[in-house]
Write a structure and sequence with these properties.
alpha/beta, about 20% strand, five-stranded parallel beta sheet, binds adenosine-5'-diphosphate, 6 helices, single chain
Length: about 170
């Protein structure tokens, strides 16, 4: 694989995301972690904050770049010359939607394939929403997110509470 894209909201990046990033980076020459800027959603962290946290989390992983995008992923992939989308799968419940997206992206851009990486067993339950819920209720998020961003999450969520929309 030459250039691959790993898209997501990353609101915020979790240890599960970082695991997929590290494994995907080993499979391609260049991995672009693409942070979706979706006007319709109200995330806990702005796109800039999410990119900044991701950059700190992937510091030291060679061949990984973090960028922000909006609009159609198939168009963005074409623009970057990427021929592979990376997705993580946690459970069967992720599959149906991801299968539909993979086929839609291939219809829009026939040169684009989606490669699914299975979650590592220890991160199977982990999502950005779970992290925010635990933090909002005063729980310990150590090990659930990269160490370098743990304080950013605690500060924001404990100050503002559950203000995001899923
Ligand atoms: P969320 O983490 O809230 O489900 P994202 O849009 O940020 O949502 O996820 C981006 C990508 O990362 C998706 O392909 C998702 O399936 C994958 N992913 C998220 N959490 C994990 C995890 N714990 N293990 C493997 N893949 C994951």
């Amino acid at each position: 694989m030459k250039t691959a894209i790993y898209p997501g909201s990353f609101d915020p990046v979790t240890a599960g995301h970082l695991d997929i990033i590290r494994r995907a980076a080993g499979l391609c020459d260049r991995l672009i972690v693409a942070v979706l800027h979706n006007q319709a959603k109200k995330p806990a962290f702005s796109p800039e904050e999410r990119c900044d946290m991701l950059r700190r989390a992937v510091d030291g992983v060679p061949n990984v770049e973090v960028r922000m995008f909006s609009g159609l992923l198939a168009d963005y992939a074409k623009q970057l010359g990427a021929e592979t989308i990376i997705k993580g799968l946690r459970a069967v419940s992720d599959f149906e939607y991801e299968f539909q997206m993979a086929l839609a992206n291939r219809k829009l851009n026939p040169h684009l394939d989606t490669v699914f990486l299975m979650t590592s067993a220890e991160y199977m339950y982990l999502s950005s929403s779970i992290v925010k819920d635990i933090a909002a209720h005063g729980g310990d998020i150590t090990g659930l997110v990269p160490d370098s961003i743990q304080d950013d999450i605690l500060l924001r969520i404990r100050k503002e509470g559950n203000t995001w929309q899923r």
